[in-house]
Amino acid sequence: MRNSRLAGGVLSVLILGGCATDPTNDPRSGGFFGGVHGLAAGDYEMRQQSLQGQRDDSLNQLRALREEGEYLEAERQMKASEVAAQRRQLAALKARNRELASRINQLQRSKATTEQRTAALRRKQQQLAQDIQTFETQLERGQLSAAQANSKQLSLERQYDAIKDL
Q1: Has residue 37 been placed in a domain?
Q2: Which residue of 42, 44, 47, 63 lies most exposed, with the fewest beta carbons within 10 A?
Q3: Best CA proximity match to 123, nearest among 155, 159, 153
Q4: CA diameter of the chain
């Protein structure tokens, strides 16, 4: 009799559990009878498998994100190395450009000095040409004595030598 009472109690619980089920079969809701029904119908196991699947998906996504993060970090380091190399090349180019600018300035100073020297030489040469012309005119007109002509010719030769040695 005792067994029949126990079997009747379990049967009633199962029948009542079937009446109190949640249409979504969510084992977390439905109270005691929903829990008994969830155990009997395998809802807990299905929920556990679903949660494990979600966890596995989350872990796979996490692994994928970590791999992507590692890839991005490697790419960032590569880009940083490239930028550093480009900065070194730029610094070298700037240094060469400064050297070139210095050389240009030096050549400009040298050119200015040469132009000044050339201008001075041109003035002296023109003065010598005028003095020669004057001497020639004076010789043609007979305005100079032989001694004056020799002295003037010697003076013009010294003037020429002074210009030539510059």
Answers
A1: no
A2: 63
A3: 159
A4: 175
